[in-house]
Amino acid sequence: MRALLISGAMSLAFTLFLTPVFIRLFKRLGWGQFIRDDGPKSHHAKRGTATMGGIIIILGVLISYFTAMMIEQEPIPASPLLVLFMMVGLGLVGFIDDFLKTRNQRSLGLGGWAKVTGQVIVAGVFGYLSLQFPDRNGLTPASTRISFVRDLPLDFMKLGTTVGIVLFIIWICAIVTATSNGVNVADGLDGLATGASILAIGSFVVIGFWQSNQARFGGADASDLYKSYEVRDPLDLAVVAAAISGALIGFLWWNTSPAKIFLGDTGSLGIGGALAALAILSRTELLLVLIGGLFVIEAGSVIVQRAYFKITRGKRIFLMSPIHHHFELKGWAEVTVVVRFWIIGGLLVAAGVGAFYLEWLSR
């Protein structure tokens, strides 16, 4: 419990107080944001704002998490290391994209397929490693079963070991790519993706802490054993989720409108990867549809817009996608869009956590 508080507080302090230092550094390096020419005209004033803020968040999370574990003198299990691997790995893919944008002085970096390839490579390695490192009870960080609040009967391994592992890794790649791109798409207004990510990742602090208290090999009472969770390292997942949430809260101080720094793809892909990893390792990946519901809506609006555009040969459903730009072009102030989308995201997170708790009550 103390490690959870230390990691969250340290990461918050790191990003809150040191972000201005990084902003000055990034500006000296010429790491400024480029804006789409076809985007809302109000965004053109943001050109040159420092970007790659994800570097600050990732550094804050790494330093605070490992410092908290050193203070507590606790061994570091596999699950939180896998979350950090995913965050750093996808953050690196995003950094390459951001760096190419700043070096080439254009709003496009890596090509779409190159970015997806990077995401799939990181997710594939994560998927394979998540089936290794069994603990003394035989639990690996992830399960080959598809999970909602806990493992469902649908198990990839029923199709055979080799086929099952391959299909499991494909499943993980799909979850990670969808989630990280969803957060990336939402990162179009000051503070939108950051605030929504605080709510989504913060929910895994609650979920991990609850799973730890109700773990089959933890503190569950014998009378409630049938309700308990078979999740490896749930409290450690809560600690790393607290570190990420704290870093995001501190960063939001500088990222809210008018933003002094942007997440960049470094931040949005890294955060999306961490969110996906937390869902997979807590065995709640299908629950992510609710917890990350705002990101589902954002990414879905792009898919629907493009599909409708091709089917109708030029017609559009939204004035512009992602959907937050649609409301901007309808005359909503940027801050109004952001706050209302935060409310929607918060309600969906509450529904997800509520479904998680109701499932336990109903057993």
List keywords for this structure.
two-stranded antiparallel sheet; 66% helix; single chain; 12 helices; 363 residues
Could you tell me the radius of gyration in angstroms? 20 Å
Helix count from the secondary structure assignment: 12
Molecular shape? globular
Residues in β-strands, percent: under 5%
What is the typical, i.e. mean, pLDDT? Answer: 90
Order of helices and strands: HHHHEEHHHHHHHH
Number of strands: 2
- Biggest beta sheet attributes: 2 strands, antiparallel
Q: Span from first to last CA? A: 27 Å
Which parts are unreliable, with pLDDT below 50 for 5 consecutive residues or more? none
Structural class: mainly alpha
Q: Largest sheet, order of strands side by side?
A: 1-2
Helix content: 55-70%
Number of domains: 1
Quaternary structure annotation: single chain
Short overview:
This protein has 363 residues and is mostly helical. It has helices spanning 2-28, 54-72, 78-104, 112-129, 161-186, 192-213, 234-255, 264-281, 288-291, 293-311, 323-329, 334-362, and strands spanning 145-147, 151-155. It contains twelve helices and two strands, in the order ααααββαααααααα.
